[in-house]
Amino acid sequence: MAKKSGVVNAEFLQQLKKKTDGEAKEVKNVLENASVISAVGNGRKSIEYRDVYEMQPAPESWNRYPLLKGDQPDRYLELKMAIYEKGVLNPLALWEHDGQLVILAGHNRQAICKEIIAECQGESGFDENKFKYPPCIVYGEDEITQEQAVDIINDTNLYRDFSKLPNKVKIQITKERMEVYKRRRYAKGERIDQLARDLGLEKTAVYENLSIYEKVIKPLQELYYNEKLTRKAILRFVFFDTDTQQWIYDTYEGRINEAKAKALKKNMGRSDISRVFEQEGRGVKRVTVEVPEDRVDEFRKMFSEWLQRDLPADG
């Protein structure tokens, strides 16, 4: 049935087309007489039909979401089959901006329409216009701001499987959504609750994403984004102020790894941190010790003095 991910056999599509032509005409008739509520709350917008080949994707700095074809190919194929059956049912959102027709919502739908045209063009009975001119809502140049355009992109991508996105994208989206909720005057607790619901996350995961974005310096973040450190390891750096983090990175860049990051503890001073990173070839085993709550500081001091007797002094 499918030759490769996202590409559907044209003969199969033709057979499917015979079954769904009548339904597609009914949908088109409904859309032609319909309007939708504007995403920015300024009344209703009439449905327009625009050429997919004239549409441009939103800049990457606005749109953090990868296309489904590479990110979630099963979802992409499912959407492609649905569009072939009945056409585009959910209108694309476009913005006439700087002389271009910029896609705010519908990047996957545009790509699929172009793909179907390329695969089926020239086949007997194929209705190219059904896919070349999908229903759209179009915002004029001065009708929305760039900030509102980005909000539309984010709002219309909430259905995506957040767990499948790259780590860097997850962190960026979490931060950007928090800024959106802040502008919408959500209380801080409400923002976390709403974001957890929207992204399908536990609230602790939301807090962790925000901590990584706001409290970990960029060079260390990149180690997490590049999968050199796990989430648990990168969060250890939240224990330290940004000056200390920068010192760790500048001094021990080549030695930062999963085991050493996880060995970092809250309230460690630079001498203690140095010992963590300068242990080379030593067998290290994690030991958990329970001490009375009111003697924690005393225990840390005693343990630190013991380590200083056993390990080489700082250079």
Task: Give the topology.
Layout lengths: L1 E3 L2 E2 L1 H23 L2 E3 L6 E3 L1 E2 L5 E3 L10 H4 L1 H14 L5 E6 L2 E6 L1 H14 L8 H4 L2 E5 L6 H10 L11 H17 L4 H12 L3 H13 L2 H8 L5 H4 L7 H11 L5 H5 L7 H9 L17 H15 L5
Parallel strand pairs: 6-8, 7-9
Antiparallel strand pairs: 1-2, 3-4, 5-9, 7-8
Helix pairs in contact: 1-3, 3-4, 7-8, 7-9, 8-9
Explain what the structure shows.
The protein has 315 residues and is an alpha/beta fold. It is built from 15 helices and 9 strands. The strands form 3 sheets. It has a 5-stranded mixed beta sheet with strand order 5-9-7-8-6. Strands 1-2 form a two-stranded antiparallel ribbon. The longest helix is centred in the N-terminal third of the chain and has 23 residues, at 10-32. The chain is elongated and about 85 Å long. Mean pLDDT is 79; it is low at 1-8 and 15-37.
Order of helices and strands: EEHEEEEHHEEHHEHHHHHHHHHH
Radius of gyration: 27 Å
* Biggest β-sheet: strands ordered side by side in the sheet: 5-9-7-8-6
The share of residues in helices is: 40-55%
Low-confidence region ranges? 1-8, 15-37
Largest sheet: 5 strands, mixed
The total strand number stands at 9
Portion in beta strands: 5-15%
Q: Average pLDDT value?
A: 79
List the total number of helices. 15
Q: How far apart lie the N and C ends?
A: 67 Å
Structural class: alpha/beta
Shape: elongated
